[in-house]
Specification:
Six copies of one chain form a homohexamer.
Chain A: H1 11-18, E1 23-28, H2 42-58, E2 61-62, H3 85-101, E3 106-111, H4 116-132, E4 137-142, H5 143-147, H6 164-173, H7 215-237
Parallel strand pairs in A: 1-2, 1-3, 3-4
Helix pairs in contact in A: 2-6, 2-7, 3-4, 6-7
Chain lengths: 239, 239, 239, 239, 239, 239
């Protein structure tokens, strides 16, 4: 069995591997409330599952995942740990800069958390690294950019945070961490209004009803997302 | 079996656990060259092993480890990934602030990496959090603060990075990641001179000869460090 | 005729007006290339037109528009003037903080430029102001959040920057600034790839073919957006 | 009629104009209390009037004015909107950097607001841009650097903020915005003492008595300042 | 003899002295070229001489002087050591904040260096400290604000850096540091042009001809400035 | 007698001296409580004494000492003046950068204050300067790195801040500033606990009993440290 993790190798082993210009995957999660039914590490479990399969299939390397992200508006829910915008930007910029300085030229930044502010911090970091190194190719996405394409088809149109997709996917990967019951309520709020505490809208940190979520659907979704991702990665990096 | 990881719980479960004012452990590592014989995640493996045993014994919770640290002077060695001083300060400050905002009052920041600059970033972050919350108790250390007490006794007087202690400890925890051969060389350099690239001193990223390292010694050291740590923690937090 | 502009009043006049808790509108633009056919101030003209009509209808006040925004990826095109993320965040945060300190409690931040990074800077600024003043209500949007709802219906599905909507709207507001001919070309690029220079994709700074744009369509779109906006504003601020 | 505004052109038009190495004017104002008699935009109106005439006469281009400046010590007066020192520095540095990157080499930064801190932010930004681009020529001033030369001659020796010069000049440019009555009072305060709230000194935001101000004097002053400015600009840029 | 220096006391001695609410003087200098005839510490010698006499006369305390200031535009001249704007702001803000936290309420910030950017950093620091502590009185000036009042009277109208006043004053205080010969040349340059290297204007770091400087004039000037300063201080702090 | 101070020379004199590539010494202190018996400038007196003798012996130059350092945890004691971590880093970085820009290549940064955070700020500044100028040699230390080697030998094993070494050394240099009586008490505290106010541990700002301190011991220690330092400096800079 080939090791997938960058950090399980010695430095001379990495030095050797870098000569083949491998794809390097940087998975990111978030420690945040996902309702009464899903664990706090929900956003880390999903991209990690994908990263491991992509690495196996494409002979890529996975650097240590960053389990923390920007999730300020969920901080009222116990257990949520958020890092600020500039801290997130800083650490991601530094990590990518280290990789690039070591000749890595194909990077996938894959975030399980997809909030706009979180993704903006990642995007600015990626863009600044590419500006300084125009021959580096970075692919940046949340697996939810792909997952949400199945809304209206396999899952409800308004499926969101801790809803059917997310619950099903975690059931398929770590069923031991999913609770049997859930609570869901969503309040009205003004369009385009700036909201700083999601507890005002979704008192149980669940943005859509997870009713109907099941392991089989999760396996199907995980598989669909994985295949779509692998197709795109092959095209982007000419593999 | 009780779960040790904070992030494997749902938010209402953490809310419940926080009522008992548990000790929370924040393990930190570093992705850095440790010679021809040790893996890049050497500094993460060791505090993680300790954190899990402490959590079991003292009913503590472990938040997701931060695998990245300040290790600028090892960046010439492939595989090393370093984050800057202010990025490290920022993310640690934010994580601790999130914990404190959720009523956590007993925190152990345990770093496998012990470089002075790295520890200064952690210390400043801890101090700033305590200044803003004078009732929070934070214990900050590297397990090497304890490990190095056995220098001159169980191991050579000048044992250091990737030397006998570190090699033995990793052999005891993850023997599959340790290589059989190593390279060691250490050059003279001026006292108190500012060095920015350790490759100028230790061309193989090994600061002392690991000769004599073995699994049994590693188990003994791990056990000694663990017991010492548990004793101090009990005293500090009145457990 | 009632003055709409905050800055055309004396300070005692504003002091008096603030007693009625008026809605205050902060319009933002961007100085950026919009093809061979549209002026650099395209993103300022449109929200300004809306702001004036909203102010008239709802007795709101307009503070001086900020004509500059984050538009780094268009900087290769002459004429484009971009300000950095933190500069944009800083100035918007300061302006909103000044308003809030003077008892303003109903604010609309209306940006003609809708790029994700630009909007993230505005959102973070708005959120930070609301966090520090929980009784302040801020509505944040680009008029293109509403405009793009007509894609697939009144205009092509893939209509974008300098396309049919934008060209038509500017034709309706400032026909003297619109050129008769345009150039359009769009190149393939990898999905989710980080792009730092849009010239690599759209050599004429036009993201969709403006063919078919006309003044009547522009008037219709402007009117639809205005009415939708007024409806939402009334609901959000209970007017 | 030739367009004076940079942002009313398309990008290819600007590209063409830049080949002639035109002078580019960047006008700045401030939204701040100017007594009971003058509007909040007093500091924007005056440099804008000058900029337009200079542009006409010297074939220069005007980029969008920045209507906001550092004016912290007037914040107690309603209507005043101040931006912080680093926000002001940042946005001005970014705007100038964009211009310079597009080959602009002759820039006039013309501020209607002349407070020392405000001007220091502009000066530092200008200096940093020139340090990085030693072939760029930047002229930085407030029109009040010239206007105050007429103190003791055409106007009182101690004329200042909202006094005879300023009132007369605005009467000449935008008479509709000037009120007929004013309030003036100035208190004693310690020499060289640090003052953070000007309300403690001038309760009506008027630093000198505007008595005697009139439109004709304003026209004369505007004309004198304009001609002096044009003379200096011609010398500085060899026009 | 009473000690004048804050730092020559023990902490309990200072604790006792603070009960009388003493005036505290913070002298600042700059290490910068002052022609062929004056030493690099010219800007530190002068305010230090004043501070010592003021302290003696008014029973004030002198904290350690800060010998470094912002002097970027003299950096081409060897020997000049400049600190950046934000470093200067930061250290002055921190020092004043420490004083205020220890109940000091009457502070004189006295700078021998009077460049606009340097003074702006000091002013912003002072203002921010006063904003956070409205009962603190800070007097901020350069002794050259007073010295230049004698221009046209005792000394030439255009006297400046390293000219008659400065040379005379240093001759009176530290004659051993003044050289007998000097070099002076001043080139024309555009009005209001941004200059980043003063070597382009004054190739010998001397802004006006020191011809005629002498010890007696220096003693007279020092005495005049001292008496004027003491008069103002007494008025400002009700001594 | 040769002048030792960089700032007592004119700029052409320094220009001439720099041709011989002299060693430049940058002494740093701290204004902080040192018990009932030692003055606040204790940490400045000691390195200054060393610097002057080193300069005499090795023909080195001393730039103006920085009397302020990071000493946050002593701020509860009156008289202590602390500057923040980033202010300290900033000013030291700027000063070193100025020196390096003027061709200085051999620098000794010598701090009388040895707290870990203080030294980390200095180290980061030094490292960043060396990274940008790989041919610059910087030696960074506190004289206490050497002084503490005599613990257990000439002085008690646990000697520390304001203890026997420090008291003796100051008695030898500035006996007039040392008081005859002292107060000492040290409380127990948890190992590795983050402490932000040292008053909780040492109510008299004295970390070890100064009993037995005397002038002769101070002279001996000063001499031992000086000779050791000179030996190391000669080796490091090939003098």
């Amino acid at each position: 069995m080939v090791r997938l993790r960058w950090d399980e190798y010695t430095y001379p082993e990495i030095e050797k591997k870098l000569k083949n210009n491998p794809v390097v995957i940087f998975p990111l999660g978030s420690v945040e409330a996902h309702g009464y039914h899903l664990p706090l590490n929900t956003d880390m479990i999903q991209p990690m599952w994908l990263a491991e399969r992509i690495a196996e299939r494409l002979n890529a390397l996975i650097i240590p995942p960053l389990p923390y992200g920007w999730t300020e508006n969920l901080k009222s829910f116990k257990g949520t740990i958020s890092i600020g915008f500039s801290s997130l930007y800083g650490i991601v910029k530094d990590i990518l800069t280290s990789l690039v300085a070591q000749s890595v030229r194909k990077i996938i930044v894959l975030s399980g958390h997809a909030s706009s502010n979180h993704m903006a911090a990642l995007r600015l970091a990626c863009e600044d690294v590419v500006k300084e190194n125009r021959d580096v190719k970075i692919m940046l996405l949340s697996d939810y950019y792909i997952a949400y394409k199945y809304r209206g088809d396999l899952v409800p149109e308004d499926d969101g945070h801790a809803g059917v997709i997310e619950t099903s996917r975690v059931m398929a990967i770590r069923p031991d961490l999913v609770k049997e019951t859930y609570k869901f309520e969503k309040k009205e709020y003004g369009k385009y209004m700036v909201i700083v505490d999601y507890k005002d809208i979704v008192p149980y940190a669940t943005f859509s009803d997870p009713h109907g979520a099941n392991k089989e659907l999760g396996e199907k979704l995980n598989s669909l997302i994985l295949e779509e991702l692998i197709k795109i990665i092959k095209e982007n990096f000419n593999l």
